[in-house]
Amino acid sequence: MYKNDRLNLILDILKRRKTISMQELQALTFSSNSTLRRDVITLEQDNKVIRKYGQVELVKSKNVEFPYQFRNQEHETEKIAIANMATDFIGDNMALFLDSSSSVSKLIPYLEQKRNLIVVTNGLFTAVALNQYSNVKTFLTGGRLRTGSGSVLGGFALDYLNKFTADIAFISCSSVDGEGIYMSSAEQSNIKQKMQNSAKQTILLCDSSKVGHRNYYKLCELSGISALITDKEPGADLVAQLKANDVELLY
Prior knowledge:
Elements: H1 3-17, E1 19-21, H2 22-29, H3 33-45, E2 49-52, E3 55-58, H4 68-73, H5 76-86, E4 95-98, H6 102-105, H7 108-111, E5 117-121, H8 124-130, E6 136-140, E7 144-146, E8 151-153, H9 155-161, E9 166-171, E10 175-177, E11 180-183, H10 186-197, E12 199-205, E13 217-220, E14 227-229, H11 236-244, E15 248-250
Parallel strand pairs: 4-5, 4-9, 5-6, 9-12, 12-14, 14-15
Antiparallel strand pairs: 1-3, 2-3, 7-8, 10-11, 11-13
């Protein structure tokens, strides 16, 4: 079994059990003691699990920003479907803000079909992927690269964004409910807010696993976005609040 498959298997087990002994986890994963130990160390370094007293515990996702490689694999089918719907908002000759989220990065393959786009992003992996398209003029913010996240953050990045305006800002979030849109990182929120304030409209891409929850840091009210694109119909409360704030809902 490949390493990523083993890591995902461990996480799937922990999502059901929350806490499990190393001995039992070894039996369920059919791994050697040394292989399991290395895999658990990898997950611990990525803030996915905690090791203590011969047990492994799943880190609660609230208020934790996980590395890009994990975020990019989670709910990938749903994110691709969401990105496909989002392309209907993009026309030729547009300027776009793309945040560094894995959800927004799924838009990239669809941009090849458009002509003469300008994209400004704080996403390192997003900028690298866009580099292959001659129809897209890509601008990457300066600033501090947060380890593992692929995100360029901080004052330099905010100052750089001051130089641009855009037709659309495409952003994602940690969670959304009827009271607003949330993030687990103030630094990430600052970048997204700057993009929102400098764009004619903001479109939120958010898979259904993030709907109906909240984090400690509020990115904005629902009125701060023009549209929410997700993969399933949200609960009645959120639907009603989106309608009250004149936010278009697509799923």
